[in-house]
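REQUEST FORM: STRUCTURE PREDICTION
Request ID: SP-0412
Submitted by: Lab K.M.
Chain count: 1
Length (residues): 433
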Amino acid sequence: MTNDTTKTATPVAEPLTLPCGVTVKNRFYKSAMNEALAGRNCAPTEAHVRLYRTWANGGAGVLVTGNVMVDHTQLGEPGNVAVEDERDLAMLRRWAAAGTENGTHCWMQINHPGRQSPITINRHPLAPSAGTVDGDYGRFFAEPTELTRDQIRDIIRRFANTARIAKKAGFTGVEIHAAHGYLINQFLSPLDNRRTDEYGGSLENRARFLFDVFDAVREAVGPKFPIAVKLNSSDVPIAVKVNERNGAPGGFNEEESIWVMKQLEARGVDLIDISGGTYSKPVIQSNDGAAEDRRRGVYFTDFARRIKGELTVPVALTGGFRCAADMERALGEGITQMIGIARPLAIVPDMPNRILRDGWRSTVSLPRITTGIKSLDKAFGGILVISWFELQMNRIGRGRRPDSRIGGMRALLFALKQHGPAALAPRRRKGHQ
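STATUS: Completed
RESULT:
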């Protein structure tokens, strides 16, 4: 990274008031990454406390946690935290207190994986419909059981309960994960959702589960508590060379996404976090780091420009922001109101402070993650990237500094030591941020 620190005023420093009336102090939105730090029984740990205290004191306006699952028997990745009752309330309170230091907001991302739960950690996944995962990753997942109406109602209750506990613990908001091929995204997608009842068929029916979850969460936390929703612009990643507006053929597309966003706005959502892609069509296509960033720039900007005049609710645009100039340009164009950042904060945890306080104009260059063995890189490219960033977060959580010199082989061995064989199963490629 470069070292230009010429101080200038920046729109990233401006506060933002959300529809619920809550104000966040600046436009830095630390997007979710799976920390893989959960202890026994999917409990939060002291490492979560240290990691989020570091980020909170690094200057971000909002910190969004990694996946917190609403059911400990249905996990999306190794090391997920699960919150379904108050048994871990004391540690959740410590986590929330650390994440809200320095006037920071800390929002819990709440999720259910549906069929997207690796067979190494779950042989009995649940989904809107039966059927295997498409693509090369299908062999890593057990065929799910179709959810009954009673099970759907139970999951809706679980989302609301987890949100209630998050608020009680001191988290200052929640983000409902409705993207990346997890359960809510599965309901939205006609490729995954082949139901013939009130939760399948038309877009209105396929979106019913998300709306029921949102309404239940709103009732649980009240009108003045921020609720964000992470939503795919479409089920196709931007690296796939097809018409992005049409999405994955037969899947959830941009027209449908805009309709869902408008419905969420009418229901009182406080922020929409734009993303895209699924397991079978993941967003990130390589482990090339900065080289990939240069090829692709800031993600989902075309879609963000398209919805600029469609919505009044604040939007977070996540993926590809590596320097203040790109952040300021996006805010100046009005295509986003929050700057979503994830991977750079695992390397430079105080990046917001450097930009806001020190006038830092540098570019964070993400390293190319490689084991040095082409066959291993090809076999485990996506896992390698995720494991490398999990290792950096683990270092911060243990009170150490991140180290970008660490190689891919060490990251792979770290993942195996932490998670056993489950580490080698594909996980949602969150590393695109």
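NOTES: The domain at 11-365 is CATH 3.20.20.70 (TIM Barrel).
Reviewed by: T.R.
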